[in-house]
Amino acid sequence: MRSLRRLVPVIVSVLAAACSSPAPPATPAAAATPPAPTTPAEVHAQALVVDTHIDTPQRMFFDKTFDLGARHENGNVDIPRARDGGLDAAYFSIWVPSSVTGPIAVKRALQLIDSVHEAVRTHPGDLMLATTAADVREAARQRKIAALLGVEGGHMIDDDLGTLRDFYRLGVRYMTLTHFQNNHWADSSTDRPQHGGLTDFGKDVVREMNRLGMMVDISHVADTTFADVIALTTAPVIASHSSARALDKHPRNMTDDMMKALAGNGGVVQINFEVSFLSEENRLAQEKGGGVVAALDRMSKICKGDEACSTLETARITREAMDKGTLPSVSWEAIVDHIDHAVKVAGVDHVGLGSDFDGATMPIGMEDASKLPKLTEALMARGYSAGDVTKILGGNILRVMEQVEQAAGRTR
User: Fold this and answer.
1) Quick one: which H or E segment has residue 217?
2) Which residues, 6+ apart, have CB-to-CB distance to 233 below 8 Å?
3) Coil, strand, or helix at residue 156?
């Protein structure tokens, strides 16, 4: 007890000294938070740039010599050019023509999905498979490009919800309900009306996608199908690669009323770069030759079912026609016009990018993924703030991905 009493003054002295010691200097706020970006280059570099539709899997599957990691002279996307353009994440499109149906379509879809998984496996330093918004952010932290999966055409599930679930298990996080033709349960925008929108099974597909946490994509669908989806869905929906019908009357594009409805749903329209979806003059000229659908069909026969060949050749022939003046030329600034229109109609929180790289004809000046920074420069030149541009480049689609994930959690 006496020894304890002797220690009391010492303990009190130590505590007093500790309490009187000066606090460590505060860390300056500037050291903890990076300065806000101001120039277009800074904004583009700090943003998460997400493209919701590239068709490169066709090249990866059909052309066994194609290396995604090498720089190519043709096509629109490879890892070097994606790096040059600051592309942080891309949805690789799993596309099988809607004329190919049944088990064959399912098998081809699985092969295309496998080609993306293989690209990630063989390029581990550059690519990371992603299924969530958190994955996209983690990939960016690791300085990798996030590879995501979207199925372009509901015919690929072969009228089977089990196949839809299998696609989800393999990493697919959106499905475009139709492609250029109707399927057994939904009407397409470029086919004759058959169902008046969604059938009962089509509604079951939407409900199951909501439950799983798979985004419902309304690009390619008929206006009646779009209306049925908006009335039914319990989560935000997307148009993965569509533009504004007010500027170009192609039925693949969205009307102002559709954009407003999409905004009311919390969704986002991702602007498509295909020239005939950007320019009404170009579209009308192409329609005289049958349009995009007929061109793809012709080239598919010439290329004997090699869809990478048919899309690349269609793009090459169309671009040559623009260069020669036999088709009206379309400049990359038309993309900005469609973004600007969509923002004015739907709001800046509901617009993004869905290029259709490697699946369409790109406008002059947007030949490949390396040119994406031009969009940031143009938007800021038109008065868009750094924050708004960041939303358009990828922030909006990441928000929708998170909300779809949350809605699925509530459903489960």
Assistant:
1) strand 215-217
2) 206, 210, 216, 265
3) helix
The residue type of 58 is Q
Q: Looking at 9-23, 67-81, 343-357, which range is the least confident one? A: 9-23
Q: How far apart are the first and last CA of the chain?
A: 64
Of 178, 160, 189, 209, nearest in space to 96 by CA = 178
Q: How far apart are CA 56 and CA 91, in angstroms?
A: 10
CB-CB neighbours of 65 under 10 Å: 6
Count of CB atoms situated within 10 Å of the CB of 393? 27
Closest to 239 measured CA to CA, from 224, 219, 263, 214: 219
Q: What is the dihedral of CA 390, 391, 392, 396, to 10 degrees?
A: 140
Q: Return the SS3 of 127.
A: strand
DSSP per position, 135-176? HHHHHHHTT-EEEEEEEE-GGGGTT-HHHHHHHHHTTEEEEE
The gap from C-alpha 19 to its chain's centroid, in whole angstroms, comes to 57
Contact status, residue 330 vs residue 322, Cβ threshold 8 Å: yes
> Which residues are CB-neighbours of 128 under 8 A, at least 6 positions away?
120, 135, 138, 139, 142, 144, 145, 146, 147
Report whether 376 contacts 389 (CB < 8 A). Answer: yes
- 147-167 pLDDT, tens digit per residue, is 999 999 999 999 999 999 999
The 10 Å Cβ neighbour count of residue 351 is 28
User: How many Cβ atoms are within 10 Å of 106's Cβ, its own excluded?
Assistant: 20
Contact present, 245 and 253 (Cβ < 8 Å): yes
Contact 270, 339 (CB under 8 A): no
- The CA distance from 65 to 67, in Å, is 6
Tell me the domain boundaries of the chain.
41-411
d(Cα 43, Cα 110) in Å, to the nearest integer?
A: 37
Q: Which fold has domain 41-411?
A: TIM Barrel (3.20.20)
Residue 188 has pLDDT above 90, yes or no: yes
Question: Hey, is 117 helix, strand or coil?
Answer: helix
Sign for the CA dihedral angle at 165, 215, 100, 363 comes to negative
Structure tokens at 91: 């949805």
Q: Which residues contact 110 (CB under 8 A, 6 or more apart)?
A: 170
- pTM for the model stands at 0.90
What region does 67 belong to: left with phi over 0, alpha with psi -120 to 50, or beta? beta
pLDDT category at 12 given cuts 50, 70, 90 is: very low
